[in-house]
């Protein structure tokens, strides 16, 4: 099970690194930390498991059944060597044995791998007689009995037949799966499959980006496309996004406001601190939440507040985002930086305030300009613009 989790964590680890590079999604940062923790714990346990797995560890129930069937016997140690591995500071040794079964097969030589308690190492030197259990009468595998009963211990100490037996042939059992009595092992092919499953499952949220990576072979290109798409999805200039944002703010501020600023990723509304007040606060909509930010940085003249007010709920907000593209067209400024617009009344001393107007400024590295629209999208006025644009021509004609 540990190796399965380790294989899965490796797949998730690789997917997290790739997913983070492709999308920057915080999900992949979390998955990366989890995968690193699991992998760092699983790696040493997997190594230990590999060592222990190579010992041919037997199922205690199978060993007990073999003993009950009378397959406990004596064997002589003919050789012992350390493998270089250890479990809990106890060496793993390969022990060569000459086994003398009590029934069935005649004497034979075989090798078993086992963790050897350091205190018992001296008793397993060549020539020593030990108690073993043959797991299957048709196969050579045996396990050493670390705690034989008193009768078998006495037999091992007094036996002469096994000690004096000169030699025997090696019993090479046919390879037909796991040894009898051995704990069932998971086939190796399962682990790369689990790694692939972990990789695919973790990368699934970024599956589209992964597909584009295959096409473009550039992580930077895919990441730029992803970031642009993510920004467009939440942009106030994407159809359908602005109206819900405005409604959320008006639910806090009230419908009567003095100005509304719309930026690419957020909205700012200025309105009286309370109905009839001549002081103003600001409200924002950002990251899906409307909040009251407190007093406006610049407070209007008290007598101007009633003249600046307009009912924001009556503005067709869903029709305003396209006005930014229209402003680019009229001013000849393509790919303008930082889209924005604001809605307010024009207020002049001793004159009637204008109806709410939509002001859209645009600029690039070389030019700037702006277009003012009525709330229903009609052009009210223009200024600036690139040479040759409609806005520049209108201003020159004026």
Structure characterization notes:
By secondary structure, the chain is of the alpha+beta class. It has three domains: 2-53 and 189-215, no CATH class; 60-164, OB fold (Dihydrolipoamide Acetyltransferase, E2P), CATH 2.40.50; 242-397, no CATH class. Helix content is 37%, strand content 25%. The chain has helices spanning 2-23, 26-53, 60-68, 150-158, 161-164, 190-203, 207-216, 219-234, 242-253, 305-308, 322-331, 390-397, and strands at residues 72-87, 90-100, 108-115, 129-134, 142-144, 256-257, 259-263, 266-272, 280-286, 289-295, 310-311, 340-344, 357-363, 368-374, 379-384. The strands form three sheets. It has an eight-stranded antiparallel sheet with strand order 10-9-8-7-12-13-14-15. Strands 3-2-1-4-5 form a five-stranded antiparallel sheet. Strands 6-11 form a two-stranded antiparallel sheet. Residues 177-183 have low confidence and may be disordered.
Distance between the termini: 81 Å
Overall 3D form: rod-shaped
Total domain units: 3
Oligomeric organization of the protein chains:
single chain
Determine the structural class based on helices, strands and strand pairing.
Answer: alpha+beta
Gyration radius from CA atoms, angstroms: 41 Å
Helix residue percentage: 25-40%
Count of helical stretches: 12
Q: Whole-number average pLDDT?
A: 87
Contiguous runs where pLDDT drops below 50 for at least 5 residues = 177-183
Q: What strand order characterises the main sheet?
A: 10-9-8-7-12-13-14-15
Q: Strand-residue fraction?
A: 15-25%
> How does the major sheet shape up?
8 strands, antiparallel
Q: Give me the strand/helix succession.
A: HHHEEEEEHHHHHHEEEEEHEHEEEEH
Q: How many runs of DSSP E, i.e. beta strands?
A: 15
